[in-house]
Design goal:
The chain has 225 residues and is an alpha/beta fold. The protein is built from 9 helices and 8 strands.
């Protein structure tokens, strides 16, 4: 089965900055391009880190309340340093966590989840910036049409992968929710089919109503010693 990859979902025209880009210029870039973060790259376009809106807001959050109603914020030493920074080099969170364009959606999603990230910069074999992929980009796989999902299950899962005539089973897809019906030959097949259907891009859930005709062949008995 073919899975969508990061290279197909990422944004290629990436707005980026250099380490010496100033605070206000970064704010202008975020506003002008309606984005929430920019990668910081070196002279070879290799990512060093990211500056996000949250990084920029440290400067405001670290200030004392003019009305004197709020307590003085307590920041760690690195937090204080970043709140006082005036260029991308001091503001950025780094090192940059990078993805490769050939990664699947699952690979990218797991890295984001494990590292609590909203986006990943994408690099080529030489480590140069070629794109950026966000949570919303990965979620685009769930915009696949039900018909496309059904055709992939029938053609790739049933016919090509398992050798099952697709017309022998009922496959219904509604809003990404798959319902399987019919009878297969062996007891182990319903679970296998369900697992493969769950791995199809765009599938939200699978309801397995498959039945089986016969038990799987028993293992050959061991010969007496």
């Amino acid at each position: 089965m073919r899975h969508r990859i990061v290279g197909e979902l990422m944004t290629s025209a990436v707005v980026h900055v250099r380490p010496d880009t100033g605070f206000k210029e970064i704010v202008r870039l975020l506003a002008d391009h309606d984005i929430t973060a920019v990668p910081v790259v070196d002279e070879q376009d290799r990512p060093l880190g990211l500056v996000s809106e949250a990084d920029l807001l440290l400067k405001e959050a670290s200030r004392e309340d003019p009305a004197g109603l709020l307590p003085t914020p307590r920041l760690s030493a690195p937090g204080r340093a970043r709140s006082r920074a005036t260029t991308a080099e001091g503001l950025m969170a780094g090192p940059a966590v990078c993805a490769r364009p050939e990664w699947t959606v699952v690979e990218a999603a797991r890295v984001m989840q494990a590292k609590h990230l909203k986006r990943l910069v994408v690099t080529d074999e030489a480590g140069r910036l070629i794109g950026i992929v966000s949570r919303s980009d990965l979620l685009r796989v769930f915009l696949r049409h039900d018909r496309a999902i059904r055709e992939e299950i029938r053609g790739e899962v049933l016919s090509r992968t398992l050798g099952i005539p697709p017309d022998s089973l009922d496959v219904e897809v509604h809003d990404g929710q798959v319902t399987l019906g019919g009878t297969v030959e062996h007891r182990s097949l319903p679970a296998v089919i369900e697992r493969l259907c769950r791995s199809v891009d765009g599938v939200v859930s699978v309801t397995n109503r498959l039945d089986h005709r016969a038990a799987d062949a028993a293992a050959a008995p061991r010969s007496a010693g």
